[in-house]
TrEMBL record:
This is 3-mercaptopyruvate sulfurtransferase. GO terms for cellular component: cytoplasm. Residues 19-137, 167-281 form the Rhodanese domain. Pfam families: Rhodanese. It comes from Rhodopseudomonas palustris (strain BisB18). Coiled coil: none annotated. Keywords: Cytoplasm, Pyruvate, Repeat, Transferase. It catalyses: 2-oxo-3-sulfanylpropanoate + [thioredoxin]-dithiol = [thioredoxin]-disulfide + hydrogen sulfide + pyruvate + H(+). The keyword Nucleus does not apply. It is found in: Cytoplasm. It is an enzyme of class 2 (transferase). GO terms for molecular function: 3-mercaptopyruvate sulfurtransferase activity; thiosulfate-cyanide sulfurtransferase activity. Its main location: cytoplasm.
Length: 285
């Protein structure tokens, strides 16, 4: 199924609608574990959009799984986002620092649990500030709402499905990591993981989808990036990355092109790359 609705909103659109009582702003900024302080939460406390609550990508996770930020149960997700003030009639806009680290993952998570009235702020906090809009400091604690999840399993892939796809080749696997990581030419940032890629996967580094100013490329330019990587937009697609965060940037870009029914491999390389994991490929594909 395709969609022609752009999942991105501009800073000006948000400024024009920020007083809407149904609007819920979510700061989903994320930093890799090896990033230097301050943390994403500390950045949020120091500066965020007016009324925005903080969505912790690492906290919205299955507490019984040792892999990073694996999706929680529908009930756990409902409790978390309900506490952020998100209800059935909310209009959610998620954003991050402007790096596209975090917001697409949160956006995808809402869609995974059946909530479609969610958009991503183009350019994030960086673009908002550059346009001269106001910010706030400190914690925002919204009034809790009831959130009713409707889990959409078609948007998620588990490792057994990914292993099966090695044989069936029913779905294209598109890896958002850098070319060096995809080729296995560098040490993986996730400790203890083997270098390389899922055999047969294609590579679209998520940074290739962005302009130098941090905004996402136009639909025409996005199509060129996917075509150059050998991705067939008419065939099923699964996105992957290091731990399921930047894979959602590819998912977001595909949705801009009307390709909305993709899936995301949640475990990504943090799972596949474990020492006892499935086969890996290396080198230039």
């Amino acid at each position: 199924m395709t969609s022609t609705h752009d999942p991105l909103v501009s800073p000006q659109w948000l400024a024009d609608h920020i007083a809407d009582p149904k609007l819920r702003l979510i700061d989903a900024s994320y930093k890799m574990p090896a990033a230097r302080p301050p943390s994403a939460r500390e950045d949020y406390l120091a500066r965020h959009l007016p009324g925005a609550a903080f969505y912790d990508v690492d906290a919205v996770a299955d507490p019984g799984n040792s892999l990073p930020h694996m999706v929680p149960s529908p009930e756990q997700f409902a409790r978390y986002v309900g506490a952020l003030g998100v209800g059935a009639d909310s209009q959610v806009v998620v954003y991050d620092s402007g790096s596209y680290l975090g917001a697409p993952r949160a956006w995808w998570s809402f869609k995974l649990y059946g909530f479609d009235n969610v958009r991503v702020l183009e350019g994030g906090l960086k673009a908002w500030v550059a346009d001269g809009h106001a910010t706030e400091i400190g914690e925002v604690v919204p009034r809790a709402q009831d959130f009713a999840p409707r889990f959409d399993a078609a948007r998620l892939r588990r490792i057994d499905q990914m292993v099966g796809n090695l044989t069936s080749k029913a779905e294209q696997v598109v890896d958002a990591r850098s070319r060096e990581r995809y080729q296995g030419a560098v040490v993986e940032p996730w400790p203890g993981r083997r270098p390389g890629r899922i055999p047969g996967s294609l590579n679209v580094p998520f940074t290739d989808l962005l302009n130098p100013d941090g905004t996402m490329k136009s639909p025409g330019a996005l199509r060129e990036v996917f075509a150059a990587a050998g991705v067939d937009l008419e065939q099923p697609i699964v996105t992957s990355c290091g731990s399921g965060v930047t894979a959602a940037v590819i998912t977001l870009a595909l949705t801009r092109l009307g390709v909305d029914r993709t899936a995301l491999y949640d475990g990504s390389w943090a799972e596949w790359g474990l020492p006892d994991g499935p086969p890996v490929a290396t080198g230039v594909s």
